[in-house]
């Protein structure tokens, strides 16, 4: 990003204390504290309905919290929402573009609303169209765009005002893998230019790839916070998995390796392990000595999925059947 | 940055956006314009002969013909053009609110009212176009006003004021509707109100209850004022009563719409 002069708020980040919000009986946020250091990517991770979008709506001045306070870019949400608004950009899950206008008109509309003069608005629009590879479709109306293109235009519109803090609410939900990777690269470029990013996602890989710090939100509460590594260290998720041809070998192995849990249905054994070479050798030696033939071996090291599932109260069973949160394993 | 100093500029930006929408998807505009023109033709050619002779037309008396009735009904048709035009504000505001872009506007340091002002002024412009066409068709089918320049200006002022007041009320209805279908149906009673006044027939031909309603509802003094300006019939106090209604409806519509818009974003 060609950020020449950063706004004053750029060095302030986001601070929120005790945010609460309920709709009628339903408590959506139940005392949420958040600190986002300037110039970093912060990921708010959580399952559907955890309160991610509500958090973004509050911090971006769309709705007000019932309780608690927050400053964004050094300005109080409650006392000076317009000062907050002039520092932030928001790109939501549902692309905020005007479908009846062309890509260029959408960007110029935002430039007009930012009170840039005509020439400057046109220049900025052309620059962003170029940067997001939308120049060829600049004169097409946004309603004809694919999901990925709409999302790109959406982000481009957010950037017209050169915001110091950008909220990205599930920016890659519904995008194909290629568009997702393009979006990730754009996010990295923004942070390299000094922008602060507040990201919500339900994709663990996304948080792992991008975020400096991650907070896990579940049922309206932050249940864990830290770097990806810190979170992974918190839970014992590693194991070795052995697969056998038949029940006979499975029985014998289960007998030899007493701490293992067996699964008769798919003929596997799961042995808790840190995945180190000595630990692996020990298991293999044990099998060798007893003359047991194992068909395949996989080592699973704890990843954010384990953290997520352990912390958000969803059973492992749902995880192994749900492709969206499929457990990654390293085939050996 | 002060929001208020940019209110006019932001409103103009929003107006340009809405006019572009109307220009690109003219089906709404066309149906809004077609409705009053069809009504006019219906009342002049289908009912005109019978009604002209059947009611006591001010300035003519009983036993008028189709031409007299055309003069009688045209001001009412102009009011209907405005009420049916106003419905489209509710639809366009409601469908706009379901778009993500409104949330983008809400997170920008712009004048909040500008989104609605853009819709309202856009609708007034559309209604003016529709009024010009209706007057054109009316003149072609025998409408013969005797208004001078001053009377025409006053009539135009009254019509635009009404379009403005109803657009705000319709915008508020649009903001309060959960779906575009609701938004297009909710303001329908508005389009019927002129019928229950002096638009089509004189209230003294109606039964007591309806006549009472017809005499006191807001469209009747507006209709009588308009008729007086265009055809030189008696206006009396109706002009002041009409202006009071218009001012009251505008303020009500504006405050109602603004309050609805400032409520938390709905999802």
From TrEMBL, chain A:
It is found in: Cell membrane. Keywords: Antibiotic resistance, ATP-binding, Cell membrane, Membrane, Nucleotide-binding, Translocase, Transport. The keyword Transport applies. SUPFAM superfamilies: P-loop containing nucleoside triphosphate hydrolases (SSF52540). It comes from the Bacteria. It is a peripheral membrane protein. Its main location: membrane. Residues 14-244 form the ABC transporter domain. InterPro entries: AAA+_ATPase, ABC_transporter-like_ATP-bd, ABC_transporter-like_CS, ABC_transporter_ATP-binding, DrrA, P-loop_NTPase. The keyword Membrane applies. Gene3D superfamilies: P-loop containing nucleotide triphosphate hydrolases. GO terms for molecular function: ATP binding. Belongs to the ABC transporter superfamily. Drug exporter-1 (DrugE1) (TC 3.A.1.105) family. This is Daunorubicin resistance protein DrrA family ABC transporter ATP-binding protein.
From TrEMBL, chain B:
It is a multi-pass membrane protein. The keyword Cell membrane applies. Residues 27-264 form the ABC transmembrane type-2 domain. Its main location: membrane. It comes from the Bacteria. Keywords: Antibiotic resistance, Cell membrane, Membrane, Transmembrane, Transmembrane helix, Transport. PROSITE patterns: ABC_TM2 (PS51012). It is found in: Cell membrane; Membrane. The chain crosses the membrane at residues 25-52, 72-94, 115-143, 149-169, 190-214, 239-257. InterPro entries: ABC2_TM, ABC2_TM_bact-type, ABC_2_transport, Nod_factor_ABC_transporter. Belongs to the ABC-2 integral membrane protein family. This is Transport permease protein. It comes from Streptomyces lasiicapitis. The lineage of its organism: Bacteria, Bacillati, Actinomycetota, Actinomycetes, Kitasatosporales.
């Amino acid at each position: 990003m060609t950020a020449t002069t950063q706004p004053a708020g750029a060095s302030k980040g986001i601070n929120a204390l005790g945010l609460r919000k309920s709709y009628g009986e339903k408590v959506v946020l139940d005392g949420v504290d958040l600190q986002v250091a300037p110039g970093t990517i912060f990921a708010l991770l959580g399952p559907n309905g955890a309160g991610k979008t509500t958090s973004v709506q509050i911090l971006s001045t769309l709705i007000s919290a019932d309780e608690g306070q927050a400053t964004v870019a050094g300005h109080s949400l409650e006392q000076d929402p317009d000062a907050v608004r002039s520092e932030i950009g928001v790109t939501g899950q549902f692309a905020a573009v005007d479908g009846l206008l062309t890509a260029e008109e959408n960007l110029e509309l935002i430039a007009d609303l930012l009170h840039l003069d005509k020439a400057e608005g046109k220049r900025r629009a052309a620059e962003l169209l170029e940067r997001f590879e939308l120049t060829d479709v600049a004169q097409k109306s946004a309603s004809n765009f694919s999901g990925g293109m709409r999302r790109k235009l959406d982000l481009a519109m957010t950037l017209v005002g050169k915001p110091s803090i950008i909220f990205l609410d599930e920016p890659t939900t519904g995008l194909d893998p290629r568009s997702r990777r393009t979006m990730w690269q754009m996010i990295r470029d923004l942070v390299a230019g000094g922008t602060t990013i507040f990201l919500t996602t339900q994709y663990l890989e996304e948080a792992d790839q991008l975020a400096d710090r991650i907070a896990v939100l579940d049922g309206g509460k932050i249940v864990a916070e830290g770097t990806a590594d810190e979170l992974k260290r918190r839970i014992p998720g590693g194991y070795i998995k052995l697969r056998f041809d038949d029940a006979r070998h499975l029985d014998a192995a289960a007998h030899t390796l007493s701490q293992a849990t067996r699964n008769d249905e798919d003929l596997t054994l799961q042995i808790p392990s840190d995945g180190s070479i000595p630990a692996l050798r020990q298991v293999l030696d044990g099998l060798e000595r007893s003359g047991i033939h194992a068909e395949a071996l996989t080592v699973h090291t704890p990843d954010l999925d384990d953290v997520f599932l352990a912390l958000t109260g969803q059973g492992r069973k749902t995880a192994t059947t749900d492709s969206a949160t499929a457990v990654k394993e390293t085939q050996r | 940055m002060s929001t208020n100093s940019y209110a006019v500029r932001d409103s103009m930006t929003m107006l340009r956006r809405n006019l572009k929408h109307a220009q690109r998807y003219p089906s709404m505009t066309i149906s809004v314009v077609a409705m009053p023109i069809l009504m006019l033709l219906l009342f002049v050619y289908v009912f005109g002969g019978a009604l002209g002779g059947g009611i006591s037309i001010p300035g003519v008396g009983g036993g008028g013909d189709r031409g007299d009735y055309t003069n009688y009904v045209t001001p009412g048709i102009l009011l209907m053009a405005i009420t049916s035009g106003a419905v489209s504000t509710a639809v366009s505001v409601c469908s706009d609110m379901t778009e993500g872009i409104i949330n983008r506007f809400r997170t920008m340091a712009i004048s909040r009212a500008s989104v609605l002002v853009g819709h309202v002024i856009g609708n007034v412009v559309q209604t003016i176009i529709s009024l010009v066409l209706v007057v054109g068709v009316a003149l072609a089918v025998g409408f013969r006003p005797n208004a001078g320049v001053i009377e025409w200006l006053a009539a135009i002022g009254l019509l635009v004021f009404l379009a403005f007041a109803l657009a705000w009320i319709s915008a508020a209805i649009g903001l309060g509707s959960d779906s575009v279908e609701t938004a297009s149906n909710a303001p329908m009673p508005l389009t019927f109100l002129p019928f229950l006044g002096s638009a089509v027939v004189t209230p003294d031909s109606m039964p007591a209850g309806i006549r009472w309603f017809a005499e006191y509802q807001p469209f009747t003094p507006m209709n009588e004022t308009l008729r007086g300006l265009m055809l030189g019939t008696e206006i009396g106090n109706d002009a002041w009563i009409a202006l009071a209604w218009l001012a009251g409806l505008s303020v009500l519509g504006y405050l109602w719409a603004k309050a609805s818009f400032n409520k938390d974003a709905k999802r």
